[in-house]
Amino acid sequence: MSGLVLKLGPKERVLINGAVIENGDRRTRLSIVTPNANILRLRDALHPEEVTTPVRRVCYIVQLVLSGDADMEDARVQILRGMEQLSQVFTDPDSRAQLALATDSLVEGQVYQTLKALRALLPREERLLAAARS
Predict the structure, then answer these.
(1) Structural domain spans, the chain
(2) CA-based radius of gyration for the chain
(3) CB count, 10 Å around CB of 86?
(4) What is the pLDDT of residues 1-52, one digit of tens each?
């Protein structure tokens, strides 16, 4: 059996194809066998008031697609434009690799993988912003 395996803690919530699922009192493991299911752990979700940086903005748009609140075709241009802007700032090889992975995933319609690749840039963005403030 292939697919995504979700390990959920007690009372943890996850959004699957627009439905919020809450785990019971024990840890559990779910196997998602439907390809291209839209899944978002709510503990990882960005809230609108947290969207204060360029990487967070692009992540939020991808998150809206995952949650079903935005159409992929409408959001694709915004996401690609945002990633292009990020590539002007993130010039190190590892960040470039993450952006390339995010772009490839988006082109292939792998929205969760796009979000995962972009989220890897969040700590780097925080370091850049902290250095700029200093």
Answers:
(1) 4-43, 46-133
(2) 16
(3) 20
(4) 456 788 999 999 999 888 899 999 999 998 988 877 888 889 889 999 999 9
Q: What are phi and psi of 91, to 5 degrees?
A: -105, -5
Entry field: residues in the chain: 134
- DSSP states of 4-66: EEEEE-TT-EEEETTEEEE--SS-EEEEE-STT--EEEGGGPPPGGG--SHHHHHHHHHHHHH
The rounded distance, in Å, linking the Cα atoms of 14 and 103 is 25
Q: How far apart are CA 38 and CA 112, in angstroms?
A: 7
Classify burial at 43, counting beta carbons within 10 Å of its beta carbon; exposed 0-12, middle 13-18, buried 19 or more. exposed
Cβ atoms of 54 and 125 closer than 8 Å: yes
